[in-house]
Design brief:
By secondary structure, the chain is of the alpha/beta class. It folds into 2 domains: about 270 residues, Vaccinia Virus protein VP39 (Rossmann fold, 3-Layer(aba) Sandwich), CATH 3.40.50.150; about 90 residues, Arc Repressor Mutant, subunit A. The protein contains 13 helices and 10 strands. The strands form 2 sheets. It has a 7-stranded mixed β-sheet with strand order 3-2-1-4-5-7-6, sandwiched between helices. Helix 3 links the parallel strand 2 and strand 3. Helix 9 runs antiparallel to helix 10. The chain is globular and about 70 Å long. The chain starts with 11 loop residues before the first helix and ends with a helix. The relative contact order is 0.09. The model has no long low-confidence stretch (mean pLDDT about 90).
Amino acid sequence: MKISPEYYEGRGPALVKHTFILSYLPTLIAKVASAYDQFVYVDLFAGPWEERTADFSDTAFGIALDAMRGGKSVWKRNGRPVKMTAHLVDINPEAIAKQKQVAERYPDIEVHHHQGMAEEKIQAVLNSLPHNAFCFVYIDPKGVPDIRKFQAAIERPNTEVFLNFMYKFATRFANTPQMTTLGWLTEGEEGESFRSDLALLSGVDRENALTDRARLVLARMGGYRYSPAITVDEESMDRCRYKLIFLSRHHKGIFVFRNAQRAALQMQASNRSSQKSIKKARQTGMDDLLKDLEPIHAGERSAREIDQGIRSGIAYANRLIDQSGREGITFGDLWPRVLEEEVVTHSDLCHAIRDLRDQGRIEIPSWTPRKRKPDDDYRLFSSKYMQD
Ligand SMILES: C[S@@+](CC[C@H](N)C(=O)[O-])C[C@H]1O[C@@H](n2cnc3c(N)ncnc32)[C@H](O)[C@@H]1O
C-alpha cells in the first residue's frame, strides 16, 4: 500500500500519522511474528475520519489491515501460520458501518468492531486477548481523554502503544486544574511542582517540558524503557498540533521507530514546504513558481529536526565513546542509548561510526577490511586512549 498525499489536502497531520503507521507496522509484524503466534492491532478511536478513498487506504486501520495481510502471507509462505486480529472501536455507528465494508475485504484477518466509548470497551478487548499475542495499541482521540482509563492496555506485557497526545489542548490547560482529564500529568507532589515550573515556561521550552512530562508518565505507567515522540505541526503554521508518543520495551522497537519517524518527518517537511510555496505563489499571483518548487524548505521545522537530530546523535555517540575511556563501549551498547535520546536512525549512526574510524578519531580493533557497518559486539575506543 502507498500513501497518496493528494487525498490528504487539508489533513496534513493525518498524513504524518499514517506515514508512520505505513512505515512502522510491516516491519514490526515481520519481526514479532517470528516469536508470537498472534498479532493484534487495537485501534481505540478508529474512525474512519474524513477519508477520501474508496478502499480506505487513507485511514489508519485500512493501512494496518493491509500490513497485517502482507505479514501473514509472508509468514505463511515460510510455513508459519500467524493469526492476525484487529479490534476497531468507535463511538459513531456510521464509522462502524464503514469499517465493516473494509473488513469484508480481509477474510484472512479476524476483525472485531466495537461501537461505544473506548474508555468502556477497552477491558473487554483486553480480556479477549491471549497472553502470548503481541499487541499494537493505537490511541488517537480528537480531544484529551483521561489516559488513566487506558492504563490496563498500556500496562499489558508484549505490547507497544502509539498515542496521540493533543499538545495544543494540553498546553492551554496543563498548569491549571481546569481540565480534569489531564490529571494524569500532574498527580502527586512531583506533579504539582511540575505545574508551577511549567507556568514559567513558554515557546519551545514549554513544548519540550510538557512533552517530556507526558513521555515520562506514560513510560512509567507501563514500565517502558523507550517513549520517544514525533512532533506533528499545524499544516500552515509553525506551531505544534500534537505529539505522537510511542512506547516500547524493546531496543528493536526504538530501532524501527526511528526509521518510521524519519519517513513521517520527511513527509511532513515535504507537505508543509509545498503548502507554504502554494500559499506564497497564490498571494503573489505567481502560480508558475509552483513548477520550480524545491521539494523541502531547509528551514521547515521537521527538516531542521532531522538535521539537528543527526548532528546531536553523532555528538552524543562521541561523548559516550569518550566517557567509556580505556574500556571502550560495544556498538550494541551504544546504539540503543543514542537512538533513545536523539532523532537519529541506526543507519545514520553506522555511517557516522565508519567516518569517525576513517578519520582516525575512534578505533575499532575488530573491524575487518571489507566491513561497511559495525557489528554489535565490536568495541569502540576513543583514539586518545589508544595512543598512550
Ligand atoms: C481522530 S478520529 C480517528 C482517526 C483515525 N484514528 C485515523 O488515524 O485514521 C477520532 C475518532 O474517534 C471517535 N471517537 C470520539 N470519541 C470517542 C470515544 N470516547 N470512544 C471511541 N471513539 C470515539 C470519533 O467518532 C472519530 O471517528
